[in-house]
């Protein structure tokens, strides 16, 4: 019962070693990702401590990740919805 990428039978020691190494790499990267997420949280906490609005900072970070055209389109749709609901 072998899945994709699985060598059945004798001589699969190399495949087993490769799989173990890949899993260990993923585990290391997951730990690094957790460390980076902790660092980002610390920066937001620091910003909050000096009086910045963290929710707005997160929104700005999201907007800066967007392509300018996508951001403009988002803003136009948002403005259309706000107008339709009388939120101006």
Automatic annotation (TrEMBL):
Domain GapR-like DNA-binding intervals: 15-86
Top-level taxon: Bacteria
Coiled coil: 12-46
The entry's keywords: Coiled coil
Record-linked InterPro entries: GapR-like_DNA-bd
Protein name: DUF2312 domain-containing protein
